Amino acid sequence: MGRIDHYDDPAAPRPNSLVPSANVLVTNDQGQVLLIRRSDNGNWALPGGGMDLGESIVACGVRETLEETGVTCQVTGLLGIFTDPKHLIEYTSNGEVRQEFSVVFTAAYISGRPTPSSESSQVRWVDPDQLADLRMDRSMRMRVDLWLQGADMPHLG
Amino acid sequence: MGRIDHYDDPAAPRPNSLVPSANVLVTNDQGQVLLIRRSDNGNWALPGGGMDLGESIVACGVRETLEETGVTCQVTGLLGIFTDPKHLIEYTSNGEVRQEFSVVFTAAYISGRPTPSSESSQVRWVDPDQLADLRMDRSMRMRVDLWLQGADMPHLG
């Protein structure tokens, strides 16, 4: 499924969908961050995805991380809530245009080894000082930079 | 519109909808909490409601508070994220059954006077020691009690 991220783009299609999703910033004992390379657009990203009926948003984050990385984690905190109406995500296969609604958790590594999936062509533990070298969508870059800055309060936006 | 809250009820209808909503715990200079009495079920509650496309979840909380109470507020923090799949909200008029997805902010009073609306038959500033006397749905009681307990971390569930 092709995915295009639009930001503050007057030519973007209008949003027609709102799906709460979770992303997870998992760190291991060495302080490395778990990242995937997205199959749909080649960008590096935190694992995550849309919430299903019947699960909580925390359970969604743990489930999506396991599916996309092979790693089991435990949520430890909240990096922020990101619901900027200027960020739209277009799925080219079915015409869905989602307005961003992403809850980003921090989490600790529990078990498992980085393992690619249909949604993640690569999965890697990345040293914090190498994060800047990886290509990311601007919205994902903003989340990672917020974590690097170590804010006291979760981002609320 | 009639509203029924189901909790961990095997006889409840199955969820068919997920609408992110914001609730806001607004306090004034006297430390009182802004509450509404819901028109649909007579329970006391924090103001709030479902997010619209084109706004952020923070803007949703401020807008719903103004609509339901006549009070303008500014969000100052996060009480928690509440997405318990065991809590379902049934709207009897159209068969919609939402799974709970509520982001609860704390906020400071800015301006305006408590004013009822079609969704709120009463609007009141309530002293913290009077909160226990008001009838609330269990999920709303849990949010208010969490605030009274003054936890350091937002609730993530």
Can you offer a commentary on this structure?
The structure is a homodimer of 157-residue chains. The first copy, chain A, has 157 residues and is α+β, with helices and mostly antiparallel strands. The first copy, chain A, has one domain: Alpha-Beta Complex (Nucleoside Triphosphate Pyrophosphohydrolase). The first copy, chain A, has helices at residues 57-69, 138-149; strands spanning 3-7, 21-27, 33-38, 44-45, 48-50, 72-82, 87-91, 96-99, 102-111, 120-126, 155-156. Chain A has a five-stranded mixed beta sheet with strand order 5-2-9-6-11, sandwiched between helices. A three-stranded antiparallel beta sheet of chain A has the order 1-7-8, with no helix packed on it. In chain A, strands 4-3-10 form a three-stranded antiparallel beta sheet, with no helix packed on it. The A-B interface holds A 15-16, 18-20, 51, 53-58, 75, 77-78, 81, 83-85, 99, 101, 103, 105, 153-154, 156-157 and B 15-16, 18-20, 51, 53-58, 75, 77-78, 81, 83-85, 99, 101, 103, 105, 153-154, 156-157.
Average residue-wise pLDDT of chain A: 95
Topology order of chain A in helix (H) and strand (E) letters? EEEEEHEEEEEHE
Task: Specify the CATH class of chain A.
Answer: Alpha Beta
Q: What is the CATH architecture assignment of chain A?
A: Alpha-Beta Complex
- Cα-based radius of gyration of chain A, to the nearest Å: 15 Å
- Overall tally of structural domains of chain A: 1
- Beta-strand fraction estimate of chain A: 35-45%
What share of residues of chain A is helical?
A: 10-25%
Instruction: Look up the CATH topology of chain A.
Output: Nucleoside Triphosphate Pyrophosphohydrolase
**Between the first and last Cα atoms of chain A, what is the distance in angstroms?**
28 Å
